[in-house]
Backbone:
């Protein structure tokens, strides 16, 4: 017999919106954070518009049923993992780009629009939507906004937060409201749109987003550097900052990752380098040429064994292939537990040293890719399949990496979000009074605790 | 006999921190929004550090005494106006720049640091703090953060919000907490630091701010254009956007302002122009030369009667003098009521036309300066001194300008804040459920309603 909330959902929505097939339910039970707890949801609902989302929230409010909002399920912290008795609300049907406005340089989109689709659509108008998480080919704007997604170009252009002008959300009390604005500037009231960004569906369900765009940028030049040591690569990153430059990407790939990519794709990178830095610049003309030359000089003067500039897009793509192939190459070796700490830029070499030590102590291979220019590291903990003790060791190493990042003045999550995996870390990063402020804000905007309960912060009493 | 809260303040703080001289109290009774209501405060306290601010909040909490935080008192919306029985907390003694970090490109400052002082100190390190409100020579970072101040260069570089990484605040429950971060990226929990920005002291008292910096930028080129009509100037602004350019400033000065400047400084501007556009570009080298030429061409092709590029800083300063002299020139004509609406960029000419009509209907001279590139207009309503009926007509015109901005899809405040002057406007801009969200957040973080009560939103029951 169906749960009463399902009966109500079937009554208020077209019946095909609500799915109950167990196999389908299982496929919606978690995002990419399989390591985090998840359960089979009661149902999956796939609304077609904002009004239907409001109906769903109201039905769930009546029955005090938890709602887990979900974009493409590419999250890495478990923010979209289903909890016991929850309804998963998938925005997959809401894929309309409602408006691209050239004069105001903004777009209005439904939450299920895929990041790359928005980017292509903007390009046709001579406009650019910068935030570029690695999941851009699949992840949705709604999910990007809910997690405040970062990416490669945010070292120069900022994160999702910096591009959200306004949004429409359904609140925890079932109201459909507009927050933020369409104008370039505006300070009318509290920044509630900004508060929603990165709140991982715990304060409201996003039904529409208005994003700021930029004019299309010039083609990028890529600068690659091979290094023997992490310390040298760290100096190169600092030297670029000291030269007053802001590259449009600055990525680091460590030896473990190079070895994994080589083992798969025979690129021979690990024969020549222990650490690779990849920078990009999109400054146009002679100034851009000069900037690329300066970055290359920063590499060489910091001890790079090889450095080169490429403005040929195919050649540049080949250089970035190792970065792009890192995850799949490492996943060939076993299940990967993805970290996402951010430390002060200057601490990147020290943090990588500590990660290496933590890996040795727990007998866990930890590969690293990093948005080095931002101090945002992604240690990737590799565990042999079906090795339960190794899995437990990896989880201890995971928590120790969080502590090391905080010890260096960093944060437990740079861009992936708290979800479930970083909840304990969050309670260590934030003080009691700040956690109490979180609980107070959550209670204020979701007084019945139905919006993605148990994520980010512990569930709060109503 | 002193109020008991004053006795307690004198007990917990060094005695010279608390001022009670009536003349001094009067001088702290309002900011630049003399048009808004204000009262003589009970006392003025000038704490020397965060711990003293915490003591003040706790004393006021005990006695349920309202606290009105105040930076330099340059606000234009009455956010720092004293209410009956309040203690004014002035940050004027807290002027330390605690840290400027070159590698992390950030500064840590006390709230009373003057904007221009921070900018000069950063320049010595090859760094730049972009937000540049017109009040920059006097206004403080604390006040800038509390109001999310804008300025001229935010058309390219964003507003104060975009430069706040973290802060220390005393909450409405008397806790001293750190919000936000020091790292380039971070998504650990709700963006409470962002929520504080622009909340005008109603959610917490800022005791320290960590701001993001940029490398020093190249010298700017200035492009000036004289136009016969607002429509032509509006086309020029749209043409610059359509050309894919983001100037580092794009200001508009209307005929009333030009006449007032000429009447004072005999610059003869109004002989040649009805509307002046002033643009800047800070793109370096040949690309910058090209960008300046394109902006100049946009002016000419949109019907400018004269357009010229200047890379000589003295000549450029002379061109910007009319913009800088606008306020004092207009204040010579009588008390000025300063507006601050923001509309979609494309609506600037239509908005200026509506403002002209509203001025005629109410027999009020309304001059305009505008951050045209952002759609942020500052209509300046001039009223003869001691003319009470004209004052009432100006206030009606003020409210009608807000309605016109909203009718065009704009907002009642682009950068000055709600304070007292825009409270009615805010209730028209936001829907009931969104106002209820504001009240819920206010109650959550200031449950006893002691933080700048009556500002931004109506006071909420505890």
Residues:
């Amino acid at each position: 017999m169906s749960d009463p909330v399902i009966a109500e959902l079937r009554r208020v929505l077209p019946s095909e919106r609500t799915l109950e097939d167990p196999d389908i339910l299982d496929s919606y039970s978690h995002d990419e954070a399989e390591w985090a707890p998840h359960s089979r949801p009661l149902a999956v609902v796939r609304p077609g518009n904002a009004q239907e989302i409001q109906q769903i929230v109201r039905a769930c409010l009546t029955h005090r049923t938890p709602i887990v909002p979900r974009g493409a399920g590419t999250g890495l912290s478990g923010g979209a993992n289903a909890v016991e008795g929850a309804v998963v609300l998938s925005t997959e049907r809401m894929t309309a780009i409602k408006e691209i406005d050239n004069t105001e340089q903004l777009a209005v989109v439904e939450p299920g629009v895929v990041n790359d689709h928005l980017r292509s659509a903007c390009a046709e108008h001579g406009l650019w939507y910068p935030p570029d998480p690695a999941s851009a080919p699949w992840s949705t704007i709604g999910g990007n906004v809910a997690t405040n997604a970062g990416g490669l170009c945010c070292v120069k252009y900022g994160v999702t937060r910096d591009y959200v002008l306004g949004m429409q959300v359904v609140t925890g009390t079932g109201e459909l409201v507009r927050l933020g604005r369409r104008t370039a500037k505006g300070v009318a009231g509290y920044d509630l749109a900004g508060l929603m960004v990165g709140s991982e569906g715990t304060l409201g369900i996003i039904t529409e987003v208005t994003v700021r765009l930029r004019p299309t940028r010039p083609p990028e030049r890529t600068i690659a550097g091979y290094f023997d040591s992490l310390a040298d690569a760290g100096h190169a990153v600092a030297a670029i900052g000291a030269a007053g430059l802001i590259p449009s990407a600055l990525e680091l790939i460590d030896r473990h990752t190079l070895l994994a990519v080589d083992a798969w794709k025979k690129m021979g990178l690990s024969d020549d380098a222990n650490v690779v830095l990849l920078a990009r610049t999109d400054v146009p003309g002679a100034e851009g040429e000069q900037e690329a030359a300066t970055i290359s000089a920063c590499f060489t003067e910091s001890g790079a064994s090889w450095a080169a500039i490429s403005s040929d897009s195919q050649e540049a793509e080949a250089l970035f292939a190792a970065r792009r192939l890192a995850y799949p190459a490492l996943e060939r070796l076993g299940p990967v537990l993805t970290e996402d700490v951010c430390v002060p830029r200057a601490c990147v070499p020290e943090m990588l040293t500590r990660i290496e030590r933590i890996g040795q102590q727990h007998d866990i291979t930890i590969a690293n890719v990093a948005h080095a220019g931002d101090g945002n590291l992604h240690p990737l903990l590799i565990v042999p399949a079906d090795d339960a003790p190794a899995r437990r060791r990896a989880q201890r190493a995971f928590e120790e990496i969080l502590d090391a990042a905080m010890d260096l003045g960093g944060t437990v999550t740079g861009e992936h979000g708290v979800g479930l995996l970083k909840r304990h870390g969050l309670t260590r990063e934030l003080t009691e009074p700040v956690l109490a402020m979180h609980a107070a804000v959550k209670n204020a905007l979701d007084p019945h605790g139905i919006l993605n309960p148990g994520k980010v912060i512990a569930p709060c009493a109503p």
Chain A touches chain B through 90 residues (CB under 8 Å). The first strand of chain A starts at residue 18 and ends at 19.
